[in-house]
Structures are given as C-alpha cells and as structure tokens.
Amino acid sequence: MGTLITFLQRAVCQGIPLLYGATGEILTEKSGNLNLGIPGIMYIGSISGVIGAFLYEQSVDTVNPVLALLIPLLSCLFGALLIGLVYCFLTVTLRANQNVTGLAITTFGVGFGNFFGGSLIKLTGSAVPSVALTATSAVFKKTLPFADSLGAFGKVFLSYGFLAYLAVIIAIVCAVFLKRTRAGLHLRAVGENPATADAAGINVEKTKYLATCVGSMIAGLGGLYYVMDYACGVWSNDGFGDRGWLAIALVIFAVWKPDMAILGSFLFGGLYIVYLYIPGLALRTQELIKMLPYVVTIIVLIISSMRDKKENQGPASLGLSYFREER
Asked: Does the pTM exceed 0.85?
C-alpha cells in the first residue's frame, strides 16, 4: 500500500509540469497557432524564475516568504511572456512558418536556460554543476499542515505545493472559458476559420496574440514548478528532459480539452516513472517502457482519426498563417 501511495504521489508530481505545458498549448492551438516552442518556453520560464530567486536570495539575509514566492513567479511569467510575444510577432505579424519558428524557439530556449544556468553555477563557485535555492523552494513546497494527519487520502491529494493545485485550477478555468464564454467561442472561431471570424468582426491578430501569450505564460509555470517544487529548488543544465515534448503529446491525448488534460497528465506522469516500480527490468526494457506515453498518444491519435468526430480533432486552421487579403 505504501508503494502504491508513493507511486501515485510521484505520478502527480511528474504530471504537473505536463499539465501546465499542455494547458498552455491547448489554449494556443485553439487560436490556430501550433507552438512547437513549448519545451523552450518552459525552459525560459524556469530559468527566469531561478534568476529572480537567485538574485533575491543573494541580496538578503533572511528570506521573506511573500517575496520569495512573488519574485520567481513574476520573473517566470515575464520571461515566458516575452518569448510568447516573439513567437507571435514572427508567426502572426510576419507570418513566418509556425513549425520552423516553434522549433527555433525550443532550441533557443534550451540554450538560453543552459547559458544562464551555467553562469549562475559559476557565480556560486559550487563544485557541483547545479544551483540550489533551498529557501525559495521551501516556500513553493509548503503543504497543508493537516495533510499528514489524514492518512492515505492526505498523502495522495493534499501533500503538494500550491503550484500543483494552481495547475488543476487553471486547466478547469480554461475548459470553462473555451466551452462556456463568448470570448472562448471567438477564440475557437479564429482557430477553425479565421476568415469567417474576421468577417464577423473578431480581431484575429489580437485573439491569436492573447491566446498564445497567455498560453506561453501558463507553460512557463510548468518549468518553474519543476525546478522549485519537484527538483527542490535545484537547477541543473538539461535537467528538464523531454517533458516539454510530452506536454505537446498530451494535447493530442486530451483531444484539445484542458479538463481531459488533467487526467491525461497524471496518467502520463505515471507512465513516465512506472519502470522504476517494476522489479528486475533490464536497461533495454526500461528504455522501451519509457516510450509508453508516446505510444499511448499514437494509439489515441489513430483511434480519434478513425472515429472522425469533429470534437476530437484539432482546429481546422491549426498551423496555417492567416492572410487577410485572401479573404
């Protein structure tokens, strides 16, 4: 029983960065923008938060919990917003190819994170190639005081930092926004047929900018959660792994529905670490089991394509630039 509880806890912790990335990407793709730069944006969000936390911890003797929370959070959101604006300027204003732009941002984001992460490591003079922000991490990891007294329920559902619960709340809010609000209807209309939406008086460029920038900030929080909560405030270059790509895969698994992404992220988180809980596995077998999230995504994509249901498909204009003069 204890092993199962530990597995569920770790699955949730692994899934939260994926949920942030998937929710941000769903919001972006609903506007018709295919942002393959999500992995890079998550890197930039995380290193921006790390820089803010590092400078704050170095400037004070005693860490104020409120500032230790707000400074990395705002730094993360600002960094992710900037790179989201860059993506929008290139793909919406200049109409650059979205696939190439997204891949370039991913490459840039990883390099940006590694460069500044390496610079911070040199500033600390640490013999270990990492930066430890234990004081800031303690604030982000703070859990409900009564969680341990509730037994298995408290451990599985109430033993996480606030960013974990914020990820679920944001996903639910995005789901309601897309399904139940006029602004959400306008956003979906832009993603399906921007020419028709433009003719109806909807500002296509503004909608794409807002959706992509907000989606980028949400994705950036996934990177911040990974460093400050999951990794206990330790930044190490290339430590984020392929979680950004898993978040993009999760969008397909969740059939572009943020509420479905909640369950999907925890499932992916479990599949990502399940090899650790299967005894006696050879190294080759472990690597094969690590492919499970991607295999499941492919299977879901095949099944949804065979059903050919409109609600299970991506936006019709996904990845296509809009030229108003061709309307």
From this structure: yes
Q: Quick one: pLDDT band at residue 307, thresholds 50, 70, 90?
A: low
How many CB atoms neighbour CB 20 within 10 A? 33
Distances (CA, A) of 71 to 61, 84, 201, 232: 16, 20, 39, 17
Residue 1 has pLDDT above 70, yes or no: no
The answer to whether 304 and 255 have CB atoms below 8 angstroms apart is yes
Structure tokens at 224: 């911040």
CA-wise closest residue to 258 among 166, 165, 178: 178
294-309 burial, b at 16+ Cβ within 10 Å, e below that, comes to bebbeebeeebeeeee
Angle at the Cα of 131 from the Cα atoms of 125 and 134, rounded to 5 degrees: 120
Cα-based distances in Å from 301 to 53, 124, 308, 309: 40, 46, 11, 12
Residue 255 has pLDDT above 80, yes or no: yes
Structure tokens at 85: 């604006």
